[in-house]
Write a structure and sequence with these properties.
Blueprint lengths: L2 H8 L3 E2 L5 E2 L5 E2 L5 H4 L5 H11 L6 E4 L3 H11 L6 E4 L3 E2 L13 H5 L3 E2 L2 H9 L6 E4 L3 E3 L4 E2 L2 E3 L4 E4 L6 H7 L2 E5 L7 E2 L16 H5 L6 E5 L3 E5 L6 E6 L5 H6 L6 E9 L4 H9 L10
Parallel strand pairs: 4-5, 4-8, 8-13, 9-14, 13-15, 17-18
Antiparallel strand pairs: 1-2, 3-18, 5-6, 6-7, 9-10, 11-12, 15-16, 16-17
Helix pairs in contact: 3-4
Length: 292
């Protein structure tokens, strides 16, 4: 056993051939019989949201982004993690909304929070010193080293699309102990190199986060509507470690714009269970009658 493998074993990491080593603790099972047929019982987005929710643990403090991350985090709190503490960058702590917020400024976050503090306090006291266990993020582009773009598509000065911007995502990516990224898996979004680095993952590879002096651990996993990607512990490059039921490696590679490595053995995500789907389908965004 090499020194790297020994270190990984001590840390509870699984080792895969071809130098693909990831620190996986993701809920996955061998491919069930009839997986392709069973996949019709739920949508790809539902599978993604359930898979993302399962990564959260009871008692964790989670800094939540709006959209897919918020849906997954609120699902987890209603299921297996009732003690999950949700923090939104508008300053709400231990928020327990009855409906999903439209934005970080939605009044339902304040109404259902244990307490509300100022935005500077959220960042300066809670986030930057490393008091947040996990950050939940999404983005318009993601590259093979887990860097996120939410700024522009194309040239910065004359972009094809100008995106909403960073918000608190750069600080979340820099300072949380873990970062989970939730995104739909499309070739235009999973790119070799992002057009603009809004939130740093592993930069250009090993040692980049340390060089920048970033406190947090970096991206831990990427949950998509096709499967799960995790960083190789030596290179920082994202590796496919699981596919969702009914999804093939070829499908995932077709929607990835870099030469995606695949872990062996490759896991298959456990299908959604009835209670997970029931609660997920009952979640509504403020002002919306149906989010499905």
């Amino acid at each position: 056993m090499s020194a790297a493998e020994a270190k990984g074993a001590k840390a509870g990491m699984t080792t895969a051939p071809s130098a693909v080593r990831t620190a996986s603790a993701s809920p996955a099972v061998p491919a069930p019989r009839g997986a392709a047929e069973d996949a019709g019982r739920w949508s790809a987005d539902e599978m993604m949201t359930v898979a993302a929710a399962r990564t959260l643990r009871d008692g964790q403090v989670c800094f939540v982004g709006i959209g897919l991350p918020s849906k997954a985090a609120n699902l987890a709190r209603r299921l297996h993690a009732p003690g999950l503490v949700l923090v939104y960058e508008s300053g709400t702590l231990d928020t327990r909304p009855d409906e999903l917020p439209l934005s970080i400024g939605d009044g339902i976050l304040v109404d259902t929070a244990l307490t509300t503090v100022s935005v500077p306090e959220i960042f300066n006291y809670w986030l930057q010193p490393g008091r947040i266990d996990v950050g939940f993020l999404s983005g318009a582009q993601l590259d093979r080293f887990g860097n996120i773009n939410t700024t522009v598509i194309g040239d910065y000065d004359e972009p094809d699309v100008r995106l909403p911007g960073s918000g608190g995502a750069p600080e979340i990516a820099a300072s949380c102990r873990e970062v989970t990224i939730v995104m739909r898996h499309r070739a235009r979004a999973f790119v070799e190199r992002v057009d603009f680095v809004t939130s740093v993952g592993y930069g250009d590879g090993p040692g980049e986060r340390e060089r920048y002096g970033l406190r947090g651990g970096g991206p831990t996993r990427v949950v998509t509507d096709l499967g799960l990607l995790e960083p190789d512990v030596e290179t920082g490059e994202l590796v496919l470690t699981a596919v969702h039921p009914g999804v093939s490696v070829e499908q995932v590679r077709a929607e990835t714009s870099w030469a995606l490595q695949v872990a062996a053995p490759l896991a298959v995500t456990a299908p959604p269970e009835a209670p997970e789907l029931e609660i997920l389908r009952a979640l509504r965004t403020v002002g919306s009658s149906d989010d499905r």
